[in-house]
Design goal:
The protein is α/β, with parallel strands linked by helices. It is built from eleven helices and 13 strands.
Length: about 400
């Protein structure tokens, strides 16, 4: 195994120095050579030589010098560089139960293209084929080739261990994670992770400052990404945040999510003809009785819909209190596509928390990332890995070219 913390040869020392400059470039994106010198402790001549190498290898471009840009009037002009956005690509995939969404980003984190496709079928081969087709389509739309991809990060609704595998003995988990690494052969390295974990990484990146929180995906089922003291919790088998214990929580009874239950309860009331004649829900065809329809009706003052919202709010409050009691989180973020529509449920749950449970209770908020949380988390995960060890994802020559 190649060690990069000890230089045992001039070639390895050069590789280490190139890696240090490249890591700086990936973070800074546009920079003068003097900033690299200050950050790395390397001499000017060494930095300029290493930057020349990275220019030749396509990682960065040299841009107009600082004197021409008006920054300096005297002395030697500073040489400036800019990270090449299209020197390589990271792909994020939200491989949900019913829909696969893929996005491709350049090295500066700019999303260049995205696409969503329904999963039409209930077996692993269909999920693999649909996901690969979505990735091929998004690459084509971005004008990128598979061999230019450094990382594909896939979020799945299942616990995932360090090898990208889900535990045996649970059919749904294996269906959701049906061997994705083999699907993306030719696209660099593939990383598979739990969807709620990736959503938590996105929240951490886009709203820093809260160090202990849970991101609660709550559409079809509850699942949590847990960040405690700034660190994402995973567990031995990747199962931290799997909420099967909700089966045993009084007033909850299962891990079924807000979206699923809102839809099911509305349909059940319609079939049982218990909806009042004046209810807005009574006028909605059963096939269209979505969670969003229920929440919108409640916001408009529909009593039957408000009853469903109240039940969901009480249920959500108990789920949040379980997380708070176990982990002492300061905030719970309701994420997923349902987040913005579920504001009435969140408000009800926040009131129940204040009324029924001892303080301190966590703040309960809707994610501002909504349906994009898992996808943005997948991209953030890939870009963070690339920034940490870029030379592990692309070939490097110790000379001055490829």
């Amino acid at each position: 195994m190649l060690r990069e913390d000890v230089a045992t040869s001039p070639q390895l020392l050069r590789r280490m120095n190139v890696g240090a400059v490249l890591r700086f470039a990936l973070e800074a994106q546009t920079f003068p050579a003097s900033d690299v010198m200050a950050a790395t402790g390397l001499t000017r001549s060494t930095v300029l030589g290493l930057c020349d190498t990275l220019v030749e290898q396509g990682w960065i471009d040299e841009v107009v010098d600082s004197r021409e840009a008006g920054r300096y009037g005297k002395g030697r002009p500073a040489r400036r560089y800019r990270l090449r956005d299209r020197a390589g690509y990271v792909i994020g995939v939200d491989a949900g139960q019913h829909t696969v969404t893929a996005a491709v980003a350049g090295l500066r984190g700019n999303v260049l293209a995205r696409i969503s496709r329904p999963v039409a079928g209930g077996n692993g081969s269909v999920r693999r084929a649909t996901t690969r087709a979505a990735v091929d389509s998004v690459l084509s739309e971005a004008g990128a080739r598979p061999e230019e991809v450094f990382l594909v990060v896939v979020g799945v609704p299942a616990p995932v261990d360090g090898q990208g595998q889900s535990p045996e003995g649970h059919g749904f988990w294996k269906l959701m994670n049906p061997g994705f690494p083999a699907v993306f052969e030719g696209c660099g390295r593939t990383v598979v992770d739990n969807d709620a974990n990736l959503a938590a990484l996105a929240e951490q990146a886009h709203a820093p400052g809260v160090t202990s929180f849970a991101t609660l995906l709550s559409g079809e089922r509850f699942g949590a990404g847990l960040v405690i003291d700034g660190m994402l919790l995973r567990g031995r088998h990747g199962g931290a945040g799997e909420l099967r214990l909700l089966d045993m929580v009084e007033g909850v009874g299962s891990s079924e999510g807000l979206g699923f239950l809102a839809r099911q309860w509305a349909v059940a009331a319609s079939k049982a003809r218990t909806l009042p004649p004046g209810s807005a829900l009574a006028r909605v065809p059963r096939a269209d009785l979505s969670a969003e329809a229920v929440f919108a009706a409640a916001a408009a003052g529909d009593g039957a819909a408000q009853g469903i919202v109240d039940r969901l709010g009480e249920r959500l409050a108990r789920v949040v209190q379980v997380l708070a009691s176990l982990l002492d989180v300061e905030q719970v973020i309701v994420g997923g596509a349902i987040a913005s529509a579920a504001q009435p449920v969140i408000e009800k749950a926040a009131a129940v928390l204040q009324e029924l449970f001892y303080p301190p209770v966590p703040r309960l908020v809707a994610s501002r990332l909504g349906a994009d949380g898992v996808l943005l988390g997948a991209l953030e995960c890939g870009l963070s890995m690339l920034r940490a060890q870029p030379l592990q994802f692309a070939p490097f020559s110790a000379g001055t070219g490829h």
